[in-house]
Amino acid sequence: EAQVTQNPRYLITVTGKKLTVTCSQNMNHEYMSWYRQDPGLGLRQIYYSMNVEVTDKGDVPEGYKVSRKEKRNFPLILESPSPNQTSLYFCASSSLAGGKNIQYFGAGTRLSVL
Amino acid sequence: AQKITQTQPGMFVQEKEAVTLDCTYDTSDPSYGLFWYKQPSSGEMIFLIYQGSYDQQNATEGRYSLNFQKARKSANLVISASQLGDSAMYFCAMRVLPGNQFYFGTGTSLTVIP
Question: Which of A75, B18, B35, B54 is deepest in the core (most CB within 10 A)?
Fold first, then answer.
């Protein structure tokens, strides 16, 4: 089954404790992306990647890191989480073939930083 | 600056009626794509419909159609024959080239009344 898998689905942590949210896709997609969703703000793109070893900042990259060492994986790293990073996070992937870039989303990770 | 605007925070529609969800966008890039996603209360993001900036005809996918008015920079979603299962949050999004960065609106919450 074609899917984007995020782990964990729920995470409660404390300020300053490094964490990683994993994202994996099995569709051989070139494009992967991370978003955060906050009430009243919609989804905002954090980072995206067009292919292995190619990453770019989205609208809200501060406080986050990413890496794309393999095509299927795109982890999101919070080196020193702060309460303002409490949010719902989505990973998405898409094929760049054909030009549409229709993204398919993971189930989301709800993060609370205390 | 790239921007997506959804001005209707909440909408109500009677079952079996048609409803239009508004979306306006702002970009100076000539090549872009427009998307609509549905987010039910369960939280997943579901792709509904895509329109490319060079597409001559309005996109349709089953009960969904996209009313694309390029000169007005609008990309409204029309849902025909509303069903109870259409109750959800709906997001309009734009992808601009060449960077493939995505921008989402703040969403419209649609409630279908029996």
Answer: B35
